[in-house]
Amino acid sequence: MSTHGRIAILTGGGDVPGLNAVIKSVVYRATEAGYSALGLRRGWEGLTHVRSDIELDTNYLRPLDRINTRTIERTGGTILHTSRTNPRKMRAEKLPPWMGDTERARYAVGDGIYDLTPRVLDNLRRLDVEVLVAIGGDDTLSYAQVLVNEGVPLIAIPKTMDNDVQGTEYCIGFSTAITRAKEAINRQRTTLGSHERIGVFRIFGRDAGFSALYTAYVTSARCVIPEAPYDLDALCSLLATDHASNPSHYSFVITAEGAIWRGARMADIGGMDAFGHRHKANIGESLAAEIKDRTGIETVASELTYDLRSGEPDSIDSLVATTFANVAMDLVESGTTGRMVAIQDGKYAHTVLPDPALGPRKVHVAEMYNTERFRPRYNGKLGDPMLLVGLD
Fold it and tell me: With pLDDT > 90 as the criterion, what percentage of the chain qualifies?
């Protein structure tokens, strides 16, 4: 018999390894403390689209317990599924198909846009949600702040393989992404060497270069990042020199998806998502073509993107995910809400939710990146948190 109400859990945005470990650990701690646990499926869509005329709308609600979460941390992804849903700015075609004209009019805010926040609040009350645990990156957490402002008791947990959420030195998914990228690059060295090519590895990072920088750190590679527009001729010269001096006659560079050389323009392609983002054109292929034209050396572009967020978490992400979940429950049990769990100065902490006006956290170029050598800085690490970059 529960002595408290419900703790609801949702995952939003891109999936990363470690999400299921958070879900399981929250469920285990919540049930020990006398709460019931409810999974909200498909991120914020679970609170905008769930039907109130059905006792348990299994399309969007999944009761969670120690039995059905017992082994989920062994796999990647999220058992609750995910979506990029922004309840404040929903277009007509994204509204629940069963929603009638009268109810639609209630949420209309102009220009074909609907704000379903009142419905989200109604559903949280109807479902007897005492505390909401929202797991996501900047976009998911920006809407979490909207609910906090409305008085919803909420704890946020940061996740993104880009590691760019403000207020924390680490986000779930980052370590696994670096581990997978290192493995993939080291495997592909043999092919680059066999064909004596220059490789270009594209990695996620629309606005921040942490994933590219740290992959370069552990593979002794050159990299380019969004925070530092670069001289393409200088990069090509270094890659050609690397190619000539390498006994196997290959070299390579890691490019974040948002990195661009000076004088070029990064094109956006496709439609915008619910938070106003569009995909970047494939900079890996464009950069590989430019390098071939300028050096005369055969190049090959390789994608290190979605594969890096797939599969089970590595040991660091398992550890951090489990601990973040338990820190979140420590806060819940102490009556503290409206906070995001974090790592600051290498220690577990909690802080305010990210301010959307600040945008993603960025690489501190002067301290972390050698713009002339296109490499991470390896010196000056004394006093830094182990494996992590401190906050500015």
Answer: 89
Task: List the structure tokens of 168.
Answer: 């924390």
Read off the pLDDT of residues 352-362 as tens digits, 9 standing for 90 and up. 999 999 999 99
In whole angstroms, give the CA distance from residue 167 to residue 141.
Answer: 12
pLDDT digit string (tens) for 46-75? 999 999 988 899 999 999 999 999 999 999
Q: Which residues make beta-bridge pairs with 114?
A: 90, 108
Beta-strand runs (E) in the chain: 6-11, 36-40, 61-64, 90-91, 108-110, 113-114, 129-136, 154-158, 198-203, 222-224, 251-256, 268-269, 279-280, 299-304, 339-344, 347-351, 369-370, 375-376
Region of residue 147 (left: phi > 0; alpha: psi -120 to 50; beta: else): alpha
Helices (H), 33-126: 45-48, 101-107, 117-126
* Alpha carbon distance 99, 105 (integer Å): 10
pTM above 0.85, yes or no: yes
- Cα separation, 170 vs 82, in Å, equals 21
Query: 53 an active-site residue?
Result: no
Amino acid letter, residue 325: A
- Short-list 312, 316, 328, 323, CA closest to 388: 316
Q: What number of residues does the chain have?
A: 392
Q: What value does the mean pLDDT take over residues 163-183? A: 97
Q: Are strands 222-224 and 251-256 parallel, antiparallel or unpaired?
A: parallel
Please give the average per-residue pLDDT across 3-29, as a whole number.
95
Alpha-carbon distances of 173 from 87, 227, 339, 361, rounded to whole Å: 25, 21, 20, 16
DSSP secondary structure letters along 195-255: HT-EEEEEE--SS--HHHHHHHHHHT-EEE-TTS-B-HHHHHHHHHHHHHHSTT--EEEEE
pLDDT tens for 320-344 read: 999 999 999 999 999 999 999 999 9
Strand, coil or helix: what is 34?
Answer: coil
Give me the amino acid identity at 16: V
Which of 15, 115, 162, 164 is catalytic? The answer is: 162
